[in-house]
Design brief:
Blueprint: E1 3-7, E2 13-20, H1 37-41, E3 47-53, E4 62-69, E5 73-81, E6 92-93, H2 95-110, E7 119-122, H3 128-133, E8 138-141, E9 144-147, H4 149-160
Parallel strand pairs: 5-7
Antiparallel strand pairs: 1-2, 1-6, 2-3, 3-4, 4-5, 7-9, 8-9
Helix pairs in contact: 2-4
């Protein structure tokens, strides 16, 4: 898996890594994050991942929370970009795409039976079109969305350099 983040200042792609987050690395709400990752970290069965550049491995650029529902379906509970990676003045691009692609990869590895390769999640209303148009997710109903295996493979190829 090859992960790169686009430095919007230098316009260079920088090698990055997605790994399980350690308790001491959890970002805090007081530092501008929206989710209380310290509380989410405590949820049984939840696995939190961070993305960081190889050059600054201790600086968290984004966080992802996944759970395995009924031991067969991967569910993306939360995804958040670091405050400095949001909006027109973001430092890094590709953060969300890389985390989504990684979550899709996990759905192939951890999903079972009919759910292998499917990643389900709930979206905020204002992000439904973004998930559909930019990343290829399918809207189911209400806030329910998912990536099917075809959309997941496209994301993995685009953001992780894999051809699963």
């Amino acid at each position: 898996m090859k992960v790169y983040l686009l430095n919007t200042v230098t316009e260079n792609e920088e090698p990055a890594k997605i790994a399980r987050i350690q308790k001491k690395e959890i970002p805090l709400k007081k530092n501008g994050w929206n989710f209380n990752w310290k509380e989410l970290y405590k949820i049984e069965g939840a696995v939190l991942y961070k993305i960081s550049t190889n050059q600054s491995p201790s600086k968290v650029e984004g966080v992802l929370m996944l759970t395995l529902f009924n031991d067969e379906m991967v569910f993306m509970n939360n995804i958040e970009l670091a405050p400095h990676n949001i909006g027109m003045k973001k430092v890094y691009d590709y953060v969300a795409g890389s985390l989504l692609a990684f979550a899709c990869q996990q759905s192939f590895e951890l999903g079972r039976g009919s759910y292998q390769g499917f990643l389900s999640f709930d979206s905020k209303t204002e992000l439904i079109e973004l998930y559909q148009n930019k990343y290829g997710a399918t809207w189911a109903m209400g806030h329910k969305m998912y990536f099917d295996p075809v959309a997941g493979k496209k994301l993995m190829k685009a953001y992780l350099g894999t051809n699963k």
